[in-house]
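$ ./design --mode recover --in tokens.txt
reading tokens...
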């Protein structure tokens, strides 16, 4: 199947630290590509340099539908349909849930206020955020709902490719189930998902393929069952986690 998003030789260093080293991957439409690796292995940096939020790669190419996008600016990449969430639920705490998502919609879409507001409300609904709480101040919401506001802010961009950075962290098992259902729903609508996750049962359940980073390098990729049984992965990731 043709790749929707592809990375070739992506690399990023911080001074002498090589955070992401010569990473190649591709993901097809409707596929969930899981990304695992120990703390500090470069997973979030990979999302940063794919979206340019907040910084670009030092080297390498990112292709969307075969078209290089690495020279575009962050908002242009978002408008083309590559959206991300963050490890920490980054919301504006003094704004309501819907105003948070509206800001994202206004930043990335060219519609008028009414169209952007409708897009924001739709995105909250798609994320499964309760309709009765749209006007609640985000800072007063529990962590799960703040995460849904952040996910909805990405969905308001109507992305084709959604990059989720540890959506399950700090959540209860029941809430993690809801994240799992949400990912299945988004994939059912044709979305392509890159998922960074330390909660391995979620990662292996929803991912079509997994890739594992260690010290910024891709050490394994393939079907989840094969990858988590790979001795190099057990040594680098599971071994150290234990
Ligand atoms: N802005 C930055 N400046 C300097 N070093 C950074 C910066 N961002 C990340 N790093 C370093 O790059 C390496 C990779 O970090 P990154 O956050 O990408 O790892 P990660 O796999 O997402 O980790 P975690 O699972 O803990 O979130 C780490 O050593 C980190 O300290």
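writing sequence...
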């Amino acid at each position: 199947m043709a790749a929707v998003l592809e990375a070739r030789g992506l690399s990023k260093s911080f001074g002498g630290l090589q955070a992401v080293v010569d990473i190649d991957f591709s993901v097809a439409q409707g596929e969930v590509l899981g990304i695992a690796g120990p703390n500090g292995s470069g997973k979030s940096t990979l999302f940063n340099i794919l979206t340019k939020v907040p910084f670009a790669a030092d080297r390498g190419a990112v292709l969307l539908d075969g078209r290089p996008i690495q020279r575009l600016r962050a908002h242009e990449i978002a408008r083309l349909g590559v959206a991300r969430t963050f490890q920490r639920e980054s919301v504006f705490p003094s704004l309501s849930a819907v105003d948070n998502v509206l800001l994202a919609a206004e930043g990335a879409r060219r519609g008028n206020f009414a169209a952007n507001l409708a897009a924001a409300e739709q995105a909250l609904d798609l994320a499964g955020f309760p309709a009765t709480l749209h006007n609640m101040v985000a800072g007063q919401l529990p962590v799960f709902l703040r995460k849904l506001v952040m996910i909805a802010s990405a969905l308001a961009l109507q992305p084709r490719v959604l990059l989720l950075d540890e959506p399950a962290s700090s959540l209860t098992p029941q809430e993690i189930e809801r994240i799992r259902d949400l990912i299945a729903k988004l994939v059912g609508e044709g979305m392509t998902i890159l998922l960074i996750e330390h909660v391995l049962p979620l990662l292996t359940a929803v991912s079509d393929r997994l890739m594992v980073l260690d010290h910024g390098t891709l050490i394994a990729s393939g079907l989840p069952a094969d990858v988590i049984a790979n001795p190099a992965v057990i040594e680098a990731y599971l071994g150290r986690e234990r």
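exit 0
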